[in-house]
């Protein structure tokens, strides 16, 4: 088990599916499981895109 932080929210997830993780590694998380270790640059870009989508969705509702 590991504690992850996603956009300021902390969750406890299972890391049983991935070998050789270290503190600070970026992982793809789905329904409480780390599925894959990912590149930090790719993780940052993905979070930026999700934030842009959230902002766009809010603008559409206004």
Describe the structure.
The chain is α+β, with helices and mostly antiparallel strands and 62 residues long. Strand 3 and strand 4 (33-38) form a beta hairpin. A two-stranded antiparallel sheet has the order 1-2. Strands 3-4 form a two-stranded antiparallel sheet. The protein has one helix at residues 40-61; strands at residues 2-6, 9-13, 26-30, 33-38.
Essential attributes:
alpha+beta, two-stranded antiparallel sheet, 4 strands, 35% helix
The termini sit apart by: 40 Å
Which outline best applies?
Answer: elongated
Mean of residue pLDDT?
91
Helix content: 25-40%
Q: Which regions contain 5 or more consecutive residues with pLDDT less than 50? A: none
Instruction: List SSEs in N-to-C order.
Output: EEEEH
Helices, by number, come to: 1
- Rg, Å, rounded: 14 Å
Class from secondary-structure proportions:
alpha+beta
Strand content: 25-35%
The largest sheet has its strands arranged as 1-2
Biggest β-sheet description: 2 strands, antiparallel
Quaternary structure state of the chains depicted? single chain
């Amino acid at each position: 088990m590991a504690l992850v932080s996603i956009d300021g929210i902390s969750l406890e997830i299972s890391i049983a599916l991935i070998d050789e993780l270290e503190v600070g590694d970026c992982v793809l998380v789905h329904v409480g499981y780390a599925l894959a270790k990912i590149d930090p640059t790719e993780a940052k870009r993905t979070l930026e895109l999700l934030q842009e989508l959230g902002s766009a969705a809010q603008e559409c509702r206004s």
